[in-house]
């Protein structure tokens, strides 16, 4: 089930990288599958394998109304004919997003819960109530970040075998709930440093989240990784004008579309680390494009307005 990695690794050329003598390539997981985009394919890999083997669980999960995870899970449900259900943070009266429209069309049931109750989603009492309301349903955590997700993401290193990029000096990816970066850390070659870029303000929580996911997946922390504390730009889905300009400039020079929530923050954080000398010249850096492009639909005019409003140089 592992696709051909050679077609997914794309060199990125820019004067900025050349001037700093850094070799950069992008792992285009956005090209993996039109619906199960990017890292979500690996996060759901174990579930997909079980479905391929004939299991038919009913699966329930959580997310916001632009959740790429819910979107991917809904598609998997349709593809394999299993029931899926989403507990969505928000109110039933709000206009459904294009993402949730897709999910509903693919057969996912949507149940809205308000912000206060959503905050309790991992509390034992809440889980108890959930178990009573939906007996027999499997519960996937928010973002799908389970031990299985860590094991699934670990296998993405297999994609890189034979591509010339199986042992980069740095492997960098965006982080939301942490399952992806934990899997990348779990499977990394010894000499590769992993850089995770949290796209929301997690503070010191971020390292603890990754540590906990490694523990759940029974992986001994191999060390050689860090999380960039400055990558959030004010919080989840915040898009200051400078980031919109970065997104546009990067797309222009590379031809690779970025998503405004995750990969643009990844690129901005890595480029800043290069400019500051934290990534030394001569290094080979692999950036992971984790997909999410379907989420751009909600932010196109913000990107356009922001990038034209920004005055100043961007690091690309
Ligand atoms: C879900 C998602 C992430 C974050 O993955 P986590 O495993 O939750 O850290 C990164 N990029 C994109 C595009 C995503 O959809």
UniProtKB/TrEMBL annotation:
Q: Which InterPro entries match?
A: ACCD_DCysDesulf, TrpB-like_PALP, TrpB-like_PALP_sf
Q: Which residues form the active site?
A: 67
What this protein needs as a cofactor is: pyridoxal 5'-phosphate
The chain positions of domain Tryptophan synthase beta chain-like PALP read: 26-291
The answer to whether UniProt assigns keyword Acetylation to this entry is no
Q: Which domain of life is it from?
A: Bacteria
The protein's name in its UniProt record: 1-aminocyclopropane-1-carboxylate deaminase
> Which source organism?
Marinobacterium lacunae
Q: What is the lineage of its organism?
A: Bacteria, Pseudomonadati, Pseudomonadota, Gammaproteobacteria, Oceanospirillales
